[in-house]
Amino acid sequence: PTTAVDYSENQRFCKDVQWTDSPKCIDLIALPEMVNFLKSLFGDEMICTSCNYSLSRPGHPGIALHTDAQPYGSEIFGNQASAPRLVRVLYYLDDLTPKKAPFKVIPYSHLSLHADGNPYNRYESHPEETMITCKAGTAVIINQSVFHGNYPNRSQNDRRMASNCLQASVGRTCL
């Protein structure tokens, strides 16, 4: 079951899928290829802090550019947004087309030290935003500090996505 977000009945979600009877989503959390890749990125010490399911129905207005990092606490994302090292793995369950709620990102925005890169800011659009389309089954890994969102769903079909947040162990030394 999904719940509508506060700004649109056409954007729905199911939070904390890991605690539901959803074996396919739970298998996705432990997808061996992704776990192996993330181990090479983070090392062995990582924690999956959440797994969510999102549904963007036709008419969904899109999501403003934002970050998932809020280092001083968050009313929206909870404590996990203040984790010092976090990535989100986005698994697209449907094809993303220019009309079907494609992903948008501002490349390299996670590296910005400019005042406009404040992680608490949100933007409707940005001149450097990039549209990402992909096939169903694609996984996209984003740094928690990158500005991202999605465009409206102007298609006649739903766009489904599962996302996992993974935190790296703090203080790990790599030589």
Structure characteristics:
about 180 residues, mainly beta, six-stranded antiparallel β-sheet, four-stranded antiparallel β-sheet, 2 helices
Molecular structure report:
With 175 residues, this protein is mainly β. 10% of the residues lie in helices and 32% in strands. β1 (3-5) and β2 (8-14) form a beta hairpin. Mean pLDDT is 86; it is low at 170-175.
Question: Summed up, what is this model?
Answer:
The chain has helices at residues 23-29, 32-42, and strands spanning 3-5, 8-14, 46-56, 63-66, 86-92, 103-105, 130-132, 139-143, 148-150, 159-168. The longest helix has 11 residues, at 32-42. It is built from two helices and ten strands; from the N terminus they run ββααββββββββ.
Strand order of the largest sheet: 1-2-3-10-5-8
Uncertain segments? 170-175
The number of strands is 10
- What order do the SSEs take from the amino end to the carboxyl end, as H and E? EEHHEEEEEEEE
Label the structural class.
Answer: mainly beta
Distance between the ends: 45 Å
Query: Biggest β-sheet: count, sense, barrel?
Result: 6 strands, antiparallel
Mean pLDDT across every amino acid position: 86
Outline type: globular
Radius of gyration: 16 Å
- SS element count, helices: 2
DSSP strand (E) fraction? Answer: 25-35%
Helix content: 10-25%
